[in-house]
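2024-03-11 09:14:02 DEBUG pipeline.ingest accepted 1 chain
2024-03-11 09:14:02 DEBUG pipeline.ingest length=549
2024-03-11 09:14:03 DEBUG pipeline.predict start
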Amino acid sequence: MKRLLVFILLTAPGTLMAADAITGSVQRQPTNWQAIIMFVVFVAMTLGITWWASQRTRSRSDYYTAGGNITGLQNGLAIAGDFMSAASFLGISALVYTSGYDGLIYSLGFLVGWPIILFLIAERLRNLGRYTFADVASYRLKQGPIRVLSACGSLVVVALYLIAQMVGAGKLIQLLFGLNYHIAVVLVGVLMVMYVLFGGMLATTWVQIIKAVLLLFGASFMAFMVMRHVGFSFNNLFSEAMAAHPNGEAIMRPGGLVKDPISALSLGLGLMFGTAGLPHILMRFFTVSDAREARKSVFYATGFMGYFYILTFIIGFGAIMLVGANPAFKDAAGALIGGNNMAAVHLANAVGGNMFLGFISAVAFATILAVVAGLTLAGASAVSHDLYANVFRKGATDRQELRVSKLTVLVLGVVAIVLGIAFENQNIAFMVGLAFSIAASCNFPIILLSMYWSKLTTRGAMIGGWLGLLTAVVLMILGPTIWVQILGHATPIFPYEYPALFSILVAFVGIWLFSTTDNSAEGARERDLFRAQFIRSQTGLGIEQGNAH
């Protein structure tokens, strides 16, 4: 089960916690000046982009969605950048290094599910919403309650990810650059605030694109050098890897990482549906001009991610072959679970020398900067647009809403730094599963049913959504990770690691039950508005807001 926990931390999408690419304590390494210089160059370049974006960010639309002027290709790269996190790069390659063939199954397995979900949602989301997914959910339902629920779900997910990203940043920079943990956390916090505060979505998108291109380049070079070493023959690659790995031919046999079918199913559902409920992923579909570009975004993102995970598979086997067989690296590369998942970094040194090692180290850290910027913007928009402008201060001007958004960015930056320092020595692994479970159990059911189910009412959405959110939190607390490993009890009350299977079921049943039994005049009116919503979801044309609640 410990390996299964490592898997979810390493294969979840870019929202994936980089903190858990390096589980456990790390030892401060000698200062890597090449990595620091390259990182400074990257930061200077992205700050220049932020200044450029600030000159073009004048309205609310510019700030939240880059004015809808991002192309499908650019948005696809940015979405892929969210998924291609430091944990994906370092962690999945380490999983392949440890388990061989199983790494391919799990690194590519979730790709089968998420495009289906996003193709199902992307077009209607773009046509119905403006800035956040709560715009869609509240289209024909009561704005106040639905936006409060959506904002709470978004903020909980964002908070969990920010904590883990900050801890991951500190540990990565401590390990790779040899700098102090607290300095790293403060540095990431300050940079993320600058990106979002001044550049908004335009700067965040381009930082993500640049990071994705650099990571794809670095991973491609490593994979090319590995394949060059074996004469571009996968047969030679696998043969040499089997000869170098302690488990021999066993690394080419699938199975063994997931033994409990309930946990495996719950994990799969959490990853699949959780991805479609992550606020910073959904927000990206509002940055393109129309539904056609939204579909292109999914197409390009799927291609880039599929290519990237094939590269990590080659890198993992290359690490077995070139790193695992090298006595100089064996001790460092051997500590894979609960230690330093640095097989890819050692391979970078083996194929490209210290300069390329510095480049990969800088890119690995830069991935965190890009992800936290997207998370911060999603959290700020939930507070300013959903809560302030549509619940507490209806009729607020664009300038007032933007002021609240930027104040929220500052607050989130301070909170992220404080929590990142506070959680330095804590086990934060459970936050990943909890964040995905909440996104899958609260956000996703409401988004999907508000688009496709004509009988949905505010009462059903509210009760079912809150039930899903609370069930996910309670079952995670009562499960093995928190109840036993963190709180120290002998046995868990809830026997499974991941609650998504149960919390998603509770959410859908709750929404169905309390919507179908809602015989109020308000419920009937909301059902009648479904036709107007359907027309707009197909064409992008229609009334600006379906419900005047």
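2024-03-11 09:14:41 DEBUG pipeline.report The longest helix spans residues 343-392.
2024-03-11 09:14:41 DEBUG pipeline.predict end
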